Amino acid sequence: MSSKSFFVEDDAEQSNKLARKAKESPFMLIGIAGFIAAGAIGAYKYRHRGTMSTSVFLMQLRVAAQGTVVGCLTLGLGYQMVKEYIFDKQPKEKH
């Protein structure tokens, strides 16, 4: 067995994996950016929430985050369908 840890990967291998995933699924990067933006905006708004209770604020933030995820999933699914059925005019083989 190798002395190299199973969980440790090279930086080059990690960046190649990220580049490959980004090419296969461009909405993954949009989702990651949305996650970071929602966290930053949520942290800022939490500090300036006024008299709103923490539980109400967190419930509203959760609903906004879930709406963002559903929107990204819908856009990603639509993109994949358009890419596969409209832009790809090659006939598919039937099994």
Automatic annotation (TrEMBL):
One Gene Ontology cellular component: mitochondrial membrane
InterPro entries: Hypoxia_induced_domain (IPR007667), RCF1 (IPR050355)
Keywords, in A-Z order: Membrane, Mitochondrion, Transmembrane, Transmembrane helix
GO terms (BP aspect): mitochondrial respirasome assembly
Transmembrane residue ranges: 27-44
Main location: mitochondrion
Compartments (UniProt record): Mitochondrion membrane
Domain of life: Eukaryota
Domain annotation HIG1: ranges: 1-91
Name of the protein this chain belongs to: HIG1 domain family member 1A, mitochondrial isoform X2
Organism: Drosophila albomicans
